[in-house]
Amino acid sequence: MGIFSRRKVEQRAVEFPFVLPTGNYLQPTQGPLNVSASTALGIPALWRCTQLISDSIASLPIVAFRDGEKITPNPSILEQPDRMSTRIDMIASTVASLLIDGNAYWLLGDRDALGYPRQAVLLATDAVQMRSNGTLVQYHVGGQTYDSEDILHIRGLTMPGSVRGLSIIEHHKRTLGLSIAGEDCAANVYDSGGLPVGVLEVDADITRDEADALKAGWTEKNGGRNRTPAVLANGIRYRPLSFNPHDLELIDARRYSAGQVCTLFGVPPHMVGVAGSSGNSLTYSNVQQDSIQFTRYTLRPWLSRIEQALSTLLPRGQHARFVLDDLLRADTKERYEAYQIALAAGILTVDEIRKMEDLTSRTGDITDG
Fold this sequence. Notes:
The protein is α+β, with helices and mostly antiparallel strands. The protein is 39% helix and 15% strand. α2 crosses α4 (87-101) and α6 runs antiparallel to α9 (251-265). The chain is elongated, with a radius of gyration of 29 Å. The two termini are 39 Å apart.
């Protein structure tokens, strides 16, 4: 029965606590940097990497298998874990929690007659406190204590001997701090008003009051939307200043920081709108190869962690699996060429191929889907 003991086969009415995270959601535009989960999401590349990975995984169907065959009906813990939200929202939030914090916690409940949970609630990671004595792990949430039978703890990369996954925020504060600082620095160049549009030059020495009066007079007559001709005398000259927007916006530094974020998450830069070392010279071939690498080396490890964790909630012999068909689906020409090879080799029949293309049998009509 997996992680569930027979002494807990009775129906359990777990009251799910409504626990809010305690993090600070505001990142000041000036002052000391606050590198936290919420402020890190203010980095455009990090936001997009998190959204891309979490939504890609959440969009995949997840079903239970036994001996290679799908189980019907699909267990409710896989079909809709939280009845107050959709499955895609629950899975996307779980993956986002793993990406940012390295941990995700499901509070389990609504058990069936055999003690297997049919419902779960995703907890805010900063509301969960863990204690371990080497053999027993307990979770403290909202003033209540739960043991490992009531909490499904999904971990990211974990060091030996640790009970918590590693947080990307905690272990890459310097990299993320540089990204936040770069965004703030570029914004503050304009917010602070420290870039004059021009300079009034005077041959003679003048006092501060005279300089202020000259500036005020120039601004009144020629500032804003005023476009009247300027009349200068007594050796006064106006010299406009020009700045390179590329340098002012710290484009290269911000692009480098965005590339570092993509490296942390294992996402090809072009997928989040970041130009790589070779610029934007992308071809169909290398974009397709990047997509395959993204699925194989970025999504697959996360998929495996979640699959194995969810499999512990199912009866022995059943396994949770994400269905990758839609994610790996090739274009029309490549699919038809593959079908032709499979048909000639006797691997697939015509009706099986039509079913894979959401078509009815050979004698039927095209389905609505």
